[in-house]
Amino acid sequence: MTPAPQVTTAALDVSGLSHAFGPRQVLRDVGFSLAPGDFTVLLGLNGAGKTTLFALITRLYHSRQGRIAVFGHDIRRQPSAALAAMGVVFQQPTLDLDLTVRQNLAYHASLHGLAGSRARIRIEEELERVGLADRRDTRVRQLSGGQRRRVELARALVHDPALLLLDEPTVGLDIESRRFLIDHVRHLCRSRDMAVLWATHLIDEADDTAKVIVLHQGQVLDQGPVPQVTARAGVPTLRAAFDTLTRQHQGTPQHQEGAAR
Amino acid sequence: MTPIHYARCLGGIVKREALRWTQQRGRFFSALVRPLVWLAIFAAGFHFVLGVSIIPPYETYIPYEVYIAPGLLAMIQLFNGMQSSLSMVYDREMGSMKTLLVSPFPRWFLLTAKLLASVVVSVVQAYIFLGIAWFWEIDPPPLGYLSVLPALILSGLMLGALGLVLSSFIRQLENFAGVMNFVIFPMFFASSALYPLWRVKESSLTLYWICQANPFTHATELIRFALYGQMAPLSAGVVAGATLLFMVLAVWGYDPGRGLLARRGGGE
């Protein structure tokens, strides 16, 4: 099922996106759309192409084919407007370990043209929300993995983006930190009408109220609200649906190497 | 985005570079100690071996320490230029570079800001070195401390831009040793930093021309003349030209459409 035609401008619109590194095709004709307030889980195993997709959306490099638009701003033609509306949490940690929490966030604020009291207020607000306001002058090196992730989330939100991208944000976190991160981001979706793209290989991070995009070997196998995807696959759970979809894909003529498991 | 936004962005990038430099203690001290080790050990050892005749800009016979001081200033900037941008390559697989590049400011501006930030740090380092070197009786005329500033800025720009180019083109570096062997050592030794070029010419004409073509030689000479209140027009031209060339290459290397970031998959 293709997404319904957009009446309002989509927060993120990806269409006909393909990319290759040399001969290796990483993404094939990927298309999806995120509306404001959508919590969308990009579900795929390691190597499915999630990180490449993120690199293309964040304009680290351009795709070979296809179009990416953020609130109607084409990433190639209006990169500045597109990037300004975007907050990103990358898969690898990107904080300066030797700087304090606040210094890290202030650096990020300046990269978005924010400084002075306005930046200070925004930083305080976001640190407050992730419960780290009292650690503001702690060096990042002294924080736990879960706390560092929360700082990265706060950082991604300092410039008040309307689209939030997270690439495997829960990797290496304990259950409690994971829970906190998911709840916090879902709350942002509801309260700020923020569109979120949450890439993960952990199926249980997509509950029944989420939307899901199943990405496998660079192709979108299915997408939509979780109940619809499971219903189409004719199975009760998303896990079973994922297995069914990837098995069917494996069975197609160009993928005869056998079962994924 | 107005000029005020640009100024804030530049300010933030410079501040971060300065904070990183002062708060990474290892880097801070090694940056200061390295040239002093050269001065204290290498120069002392060669003090009696190498006699330096009177060559411009010097007006008298000078001790070897005085001769190599400008080369060591350029070396500080060389190391700094490599470190500040190459750390982006292997520090957490491009992580900090990604953060920089998803800023809505144009990429050429972000790279230039990054470069200016590293120049600020390298100029401060150079002056700290000059301060300590004064105790080794490396005492250029008082006005030399002022006239050397534009030279340090220009050579800092060139070496910083070179670092940026390398960071965009080098696919993977296991550690700093690779850069040491293939960039820093050849540039440093095949230059006028440690020995005057007329001496090189006596032993090998080929090496002499390699040294002449080495932009690091010109960075060194630019600093040497400026430290004594004199201008080295050829060196200034070469350094300015090389800066421009490296900067164009760096912007090209980081261009999302054509550059090499895409080919290596951005750290995947």
UniProtKB/TrEMBL annotation, chain A:
One of its GO terms (molecular function) is ATP hydrolysis activity. SUPFAM superfamilies: P-loop containing nucleoside triphosphate hydrolases. SMART domains: AAA. Residues 12-242 form the ABC transporter domain. Belongs to the ABC transporter superfamily. PANTHER family: ABC TRANSPORTER ATP-BINDING PROTEIN, ABC TRANSPORTER ATP-BINDING PROTEIN NATA. This is ABC-2 type transport system ATP-binding protein.
TrEMBL record, chain B:
It holds the Pfam family ABC2_membrane. GO terms for cellular component: ATP-binding cassette (ABC) transporter complex. One of its GO terms (molecular function) is ABC-type transporter activity. It comes from the Bacteria. PROSITE patterns: ABC_TM2. It is a multi-pass membrane protein. It is found in: Cell inner membrane; Membrane. InterPro entries: ABC2_TM, ABC2_TM_bact-type, ABC_2_transport, Alc_ABC_transptr_permease, T7SS_ABC-Transporter. The keyword Membrane applies. Residues 26-257 form the ABC transmembrane type-2 domain. The chain crosses the membrane at residues 36-55, 67-90, 111-136, 142-166, 178-198, 234-254. Keywords: Cell membrane, Membrane, Transmembrane, Transmembrane helix, Transport. Belongs to the ABC-2 integral membrane protein family. NCBIfam families: phenyl_ABC_PedC. This is Transport permease protein.
